[in-house]
Amino acid sequence: RDALHAAISEDDGRTWIGYRELILNEDRNRGDFASCAKRDMSVHQTQIAELPEGKILISLGQGVSRRLLSFDPKWLYEAKHSVDFSKGLDSVTTHQYIKGIKGHCAFNRIRGAELLTDRKSKTNTVSVKICNPMDKRLVIPNQGLVWNFPNADSARLTVKIKFPKGSKGGRISLLDRWVNASDKWSHHYAMCNLTLDSSLAVSKKAGFTPGKWHELRFDWANVTGAEKGASFCSVYLDNVKLTAKLPLARTTANGISYIHFISSDDADQHGFLINNINLIHVNDNVKGARNRKRF
Q: What is the pLDDT at residue 289?
């Protein structure tokens, strides 16, 4: 229970708009998460009230973790989102679990994927390194990163990505739900997946150059109306479109709202680096777009 989401419906709950992370557990990376706490540290047990000016007030957490926050419903209708990691990892999930259940049925944790700053660049570019050091202390050694964006029936998502020489690759998944960053089985319930091995090939004619930054782009359209197996997501590498589209591995009722990056299952100290993830809805057919101005 490390993520709490908010969504809004305009058809009595049949479909939902937003699926945005309202809050991530502030204690989610604590090394003593389970062993030190004699309290519940989750972001659940919610109570919600509408304020007179149209804002939403929510009470969440339990005991000394209880807190209040408010938000504007307009936020759920936003059609774009981005992250460049210049403010750290507060807006993403990266933690991993240390073996051994302790305390209140929980695991102690480590942060996982780490921030790197390129001091040679003029802008001190900040990236996240995702690798697999095969740490035997952990339940699952694969490092990963999970990022949320406004749920999209049709959208364009871009990410800057670099695979150092010696990288074993990794996997990128698009989903309609939060997953643990180290969940190496998330591809089974993702809408689509792009898996890369040590060859770094994305098709028979295209692939990543070790040590070079590339722009990877995903364009999907009308995912909520697509049937399983349909070819629905186009992939571009440095603005060059790959011949084959990614197939829809699992259907979704309300669109895609997450991207998950995870390292190779093999031992891999090199891994890959990411920065500058951008998402934008690409047409006016996104659920709720017609009513964005009504609040």
A: 44
Give the mean model confidence (pLDDT) for residues 25-50.
81
CA atoms within 13 A on the CB side of 37: 23
Here the tokens at position 190 are 């993702």
DSSP 118-179: -TTSTT--EEEEEEE---TTBSS---EEEEEEEEESSEEEEEEEE--TT---EEEEEESS--
From residue 130, give the alpha-carbon distance in Å to each of 55, 116, 264. 38, 11, 9
Residue 90 has which token pair?
């507060």
How far apart (Å, rounded) are the C-alpha atoms in residues 31 and 98?
Answer: 8
CA-based R_g, the chain, Å: 20
CA distances from 166 to 72, 246, 256, 269, 271 (A): 47, 26, 32, 9, 8
Lookup result for tokens 């059609």:
79
Average pLDDT over residues 262-267: 96
Average pLDDT over residues 232-240: 95
* Alpha carbon distance 72, 77 (integer Å): 10
SS3 (DSSP) at 204: coil
Length of the chain: 295
Report the C-alpha gap between 176 and 153 in whole angstroms. 10
The pTM of this model reads: 0.92
Q: What is the pLDDT of residue 166?
A: 96
Q: Which residues pair with 132 in a beta bridge?
A: 268
The average confidence (pLDDT) of the chain is 90
φ, ψ of residue 90 to 5 degrees: the values are -65, -25
| Integer Cα distance of 238 and 208 in angstroms | 10
Burial class (CB in 10 A: 0-12, 13-18, 19+), 124: exposed
By three-state DSSP, how is residue 184 classified? coil
212 within 8 A of 161, measured Cβ to Cβ = no
Q: What is the pLDDT of residue 205?
A: 83
Look at residue 293 and tell me whether its pLDDT is greater than 60. no
